[in-house]
């Protein structure tokens, strides 16, 4: 995907978050135990402002929203991020939580942050009725999850001996994109964009696969050749 697609997604997904009705703010969010929609919206706005801090090279505390006008505060947070990104060279390197990366890392990350939590909020308000993800965008989200979050989370856990070198193959059935193979090699996982041999293959639409790897409930559960192995591999990586 190109930069304009990520920016458009950040705008559209942010608008959808801001449009959540106030009367739904108390609804519990299934994917984030203990959170309601209001806390979810606060979280996304704070993450946008946290990203701005990285982009500016600042280490200031991220402000919390007040009790009123959460929708306006969220929109201000999203717009602050957009203005910051629009004023920067997307090829320039900045700090991120995984080391130095181009500015566009934050554009992509925040687009997917807003998209997943927009889905969470809409699913909380009307379970099973959240707007679906665009297939190409969802496939990009899977790629980001694999290359950004999988190495980060696997560095924090001890992979069981019986999963050492286990492999998970992920294949989208509705968009032309190279499949991925995640192999739990040590000391770091190996991620390949090819149809390598694997202990289990997870296949389905890009949107359902994205929801699956993020531990959400997809409309149609992707097919797995070894469901238990797939579950155990995915359980090693939980992102809020």
Automatic annotation (TrEMBL):
- Any one of the GO CC terms: plasma membrane
Q: Which UniProt keywords apply?
A: Isomerase, Pyruvate
Q: Which GO terms describe its molecular function?
A: isomerase activity; metal ion binding
Residues of the MDMPI C-terminal domain = 136-226
Database matches in InterPro entries: DinB/YfiT-like (IPR034660), Maleyloyr_isom (IPR017517), MDMPI_C-term_domain (IPR010872), MDMPI_metal-binding (IPR024344)
Q: Mycothiol-dependent maleylpyruvate isomerase metal-binding domain: which residues?
A: 10-122
Q: Which PANTHER family match?
A: CONSERVED PROTEIN
Annotated protein name in UniProt: Maleylpyruvate isomerase family mycothiol-dependent enzyme
Source species, please? Nocardia nova
């Amino acid at each position: 995907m190109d930069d304009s697609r990520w920016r458009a997604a950040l705008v559209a997904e942010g608008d959808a978050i801001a449009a959540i009705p106030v009367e739904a703010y108390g609804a519990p969010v299934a994917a984030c135990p203990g959170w309601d929609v209001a806390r979810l919206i606060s979280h996304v706005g704070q993450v946008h402002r946290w990203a701005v801090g990285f982009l500016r090279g600042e280490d200031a505390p991220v402000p919390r929203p007040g009790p009123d006008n959460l929708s306006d505060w969220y929109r201000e947070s999203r717009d602050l991020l957009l203005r910051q990104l629009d004023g920067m060279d997307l090829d320039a390197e900045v700090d991120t939580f995984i080391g130095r990366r181009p500015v566009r890392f934050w554009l992509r990350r925040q687009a997917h942050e807003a998209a997943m939590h927009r889905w969470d909020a809409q699913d909380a308000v009307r379970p099973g009725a959240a707007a679906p993800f665009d297939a190409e965008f969802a496939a990009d989200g899977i790629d980001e999850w694999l290359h950004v979050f999988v190495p980060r989370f696997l560095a924090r856990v001890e992979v069981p001996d019986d999963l050492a070198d286990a492999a998970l193959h992920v294949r989208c059935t509705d968009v032309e994109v190279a499949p991925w193979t995640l192999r739990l090699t040590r000391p770091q996982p190996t991620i390949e964009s090819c149809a390598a041999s694997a202990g289990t293959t997870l296949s389905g639409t890009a949107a359902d696969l994205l929801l699956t790897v993020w531990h959400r409930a997809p409309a149609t559960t992707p097919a797995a050749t070894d469901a238990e192995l797939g579950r155990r591999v995915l359980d090693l990586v939980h992102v809020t």
